[in-house]
């Protein structure tokens, strides 16, 4: 049998090394690559076509949720396990909407991480218990989902979500343009469209929005 090939994407070196050490000790598993940003994770997934990507939600440059959408599009056979510091019903909605079938909180035990990967290796979903309860609850008429704000992905385009993250990380329109390979005028147009769609008036409000929707970490 060929080994289960896993790509680990986390911007924290200590966390990434810890996960790598844990998973390498599992017989039949191979770490085929590592990434420190969401953009690196997408590029590595496109190139390596791993069986599973272990993906931190709060990464710089391109957050884990946006990276997950692009990986699913580029390599549909690749399963994704999202790691997050915090539990959020809205994040679970984003994850399910993106076609991701794995989600655990970083405070969950090492055992849960291993079980999650064993489950995803069989192309079966694995969610942290709170998330499972919420997903099952979505079938009820009084679903908690109705109380959750609309998905970020329903309001903004993929490019606009990138703009939000880069602006919230403190980048200027010139830096955004350079990062995305677009003109400064186009970057400013995207910025204006984002602020209008989200009904925001300044960068401080944009940062709060990005933190609240886990586009960036506080």
Task: Describe the overall structure.
With 218 residues, the chain is α/β, with parallel strands linked by helices. It has helices at 13-24, 38-48, 64-74, 89-97, 110-121, 129-137, 152-155, 158-168, 173-180, 184-198, 203-212, and strands at 4-9, 29-35, 52-56, 79-84, 102-105, 126-127. The chain has a six-stranded parallel sheet with strand order 2-1-3-4-5-6, sandwiched between helices. α4 links the parallel β4 (79-84) and β5 (102-105). The chain starts with a strand and ends in a 6-residue tail after the last helix.
CATH secondary-structure class of the largest domain: Alpha Beta
**Biggest sheet, spatial arrangement of strands:** 2-1-3-4-5-6
Largest sheet: 6 strands, parallel
**Span between N and C termini?**
43 Å
The CATH architecture category of the largest domain equals 3-Layer(aba) Sandwich
Q: List the total number of helices.
A: 11
Q: What shape does the CA trace take?
A: globular
Percent helix, as a range, is 40-55%
Features:
218 residues; Arc Repressor Mutant, subunit A; 6-stranded parallel β-sheet; single chain; alpha/beta; globular; 6 strands; Rossmann fold; 2 domains
Question: What's the SSE blueprint?
Answer:
Elements: E1 4-9, H1 13-24, E2 29-35, H2 38-48, E3 52-56, H3 64-74, E4 79-84, H4 89-97, E5 102-105, H5 110-121, E6 126-127, H6 129-137, H7 152-155, H8 158-168, H9 173-180, H10 184-198, H11 203-212
Parallel strand pairs: 1-2, 1-3, 3-4, 4-5, 5-6
Helix pairs in contact: 2-3, 8-10, 8-11, 9-10
């Amino acid at each position: 049998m060929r080994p289960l090939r896993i790509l680990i994407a986390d911007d924290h070196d200590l966390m990434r090394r810890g996960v790598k050490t844990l998973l390498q000790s599992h017989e039949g598993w191979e770490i085929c690559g590592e990434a420190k940003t969401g953009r690196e994770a997408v590029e590595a997934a496109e190139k390596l076509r791993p069986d599973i990507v272990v993906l931190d939600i709060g990464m710089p440059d391109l957050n884990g949720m946006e990276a997950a959408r692009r990986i699913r599009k580029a390599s549909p056979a690749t399963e994704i396990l999202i790691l997050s510091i915090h539990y959020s019903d809205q994040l679970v909605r984003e994850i399910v909407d993106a076609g991701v079938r794995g989600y655990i909180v970083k405070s969950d035990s090492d055992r849960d991480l291993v079980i999650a990967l064993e489950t995803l290796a069989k192309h079966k979903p694995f969610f942290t218990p709170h998330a499972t309860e919420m997903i099952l609850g979505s079938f009820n008429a009084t679903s908690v989902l109705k109380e959750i704000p609309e998905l970020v992905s329903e309001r903004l385009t993929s490019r606009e979500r990138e703009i939000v993250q880069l602006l919230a990380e403190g980048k200027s329109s010139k830096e955004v343009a350079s990062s995305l390979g677009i003109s400064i005028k186009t970057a400013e147009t995207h910025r204006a469209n984002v602020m209008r769609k989200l009904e925001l008036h300044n960068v401080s409000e944009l940062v709060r929005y990005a933190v609240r929707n886990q586009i960036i970490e506080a």
